[in-house]
Amino acid sequence: MKKRARIHGSYRTEVTITRNERELHIAVTVTSNPLPATGREQFLVVLDDLTELIRAEKFAAWQEVARRLAHEIKNPLTPIQLSAERLKKRFEKIPESRRGMREVREFGEILSESTRIIVQESEMLKSLVQEFSRFARLPVSKPSDVQLHDLIERTLQLYDGGLAAVRVCRNFDPRIGNVRLDPEQMQRVFVNLIDNSLDALADCNSEKVLTIGTRLNESRRTITVEIADNGTGIEASDHERLFLPYFSTKKKGTGLGLAIVRQIVSEHNGFIRAEPNTPQGTKMILELPVVE
Question: Quick count: other Cβ atoms within 10 Å of Cβ 10?
C-alpha cells in the first residue's frame, strides 16, 4: 500500500480482520507525504471501521428479501386453506348411506387427514409470514422516559409461572433511574433474550439460573444490561452470526428474533453482543447511551 501511495499519492483498500472470533471490516487509506529537501517521506494511515455499516447494509438487503417473501407466500395461502376446507365440507354432505361403502370410507379418511395437514401447515406458514412482515417493517422507535428496572420487572411478570423452575438473580445498579427508550420495542428485546435463555436452560441438568444485571458506565456515559444463563451455551464461532437474519441454532427457529433485537438496539444508538457465560452458558450484553 505504501508503494502504491508513492505512485498515486493516496491508496485505499478494505481488509477483513478476525479477532477473538469477531470479524472486523476495515477501510485502510494510506497517503504519501514527501518531505522536501530531506529525501524522506511521511505516510498518513487512516483506519475506518466499516463493520456496523456493512451489517446495516446486509440487514437492509435481508429486509427487502423478507418483504418479498412475505408478499409471495401470503397471496396463495388463503385460497389453499379455503380449498382444503371446502373439499372436506363437500365430502361431509355425502349421505351416510353412501359413506358406508369401504372405498368411500377409506377415501374419506385420507381426505380428512390430508385436509388437516394442509390447514395445519398453512397456519404454520401464516405465522412465518407474520414474522417476515414484522422483520421487514419494524415500527418507528418512539422514545420516552422509562424506569429501566421497572420495565425489566414488568417483562418478567409476563412469564407468570414460566419461571417457577428457574432461579432469577437481579443485579441492578441503583444509580440507574429513568432511561430514554421505546418501552414496547425494548420490552420485545428483553422478551426475545429471556426466551432464548429459557430454551437454553430447558436441557440443563443442574440448577437453572437466569441472571439479569444493569450497570451505569459513567466514563462512557452508557448503560449496560446483561442477560445471562447457565444453559447449554453457544459455539464461540457462532456468537457474531447469531444476529444475522435467518441464522438460528434452534431446530424450529426462523433466525429473525436476534436480527430484530439488533435492529431495535441499533435504533437506540446502542450495541449488542454475545459472550460465553463462564463456566457455562451464554451472556447477552446490551450497551445503550445515556441521553440527557
Answer: 14
Q: Alpha carbon of 110 to those of 57, 87, 88, 120, 129: distances in Å?
A: 48, 12, 11, 15, 28
Residues 6+ apart with CB under 8 A from 183: 144, 146, 151
Determine the pLDDT at residue 23: 77
Residue 274's beta-bridge partner residues? 284
Instruction: State the CATH architecture for 2-49.
Output: Ribbon (2.10)
- 144-289 topology per CATH: Heat Shock Protein 90 (3.30.565)
**Please, are residues 141 and 264 in contact by the beta-carbon 8 Å criterion?**
yes
Q: What is the DSSP letter of 14?
A: E
Contact 212, 170 (CB under 8 A): yes
Domain ranges of the chain: 2-49, 54-136, 144-289
First to last CA, the chain: 44
Burial of 103 (0-12, 13-18, 19+ CB in 10 A): exposed
- Strand 40-49 vs strand 10-19: parallel, antiparallel, or unpaired? unpaired
| Model-wide pTM > 0.70 | no
d(CA 37, CA 60): 52
CA atoms within 13 A on the CB side of 177: 1
pLDDT along the chain (292 residues), means of 10: 87 84 84 84 90 74 71 75 85 76 82 87 79 67 89 88 84 92 90 88 85 91 92 76 69 70 86 87 90 61
Q: Taking the CA atoms of the chain, what radius of gyration do you get in angstroms?
A: 27
Residue recorded with cell 371446502: 86
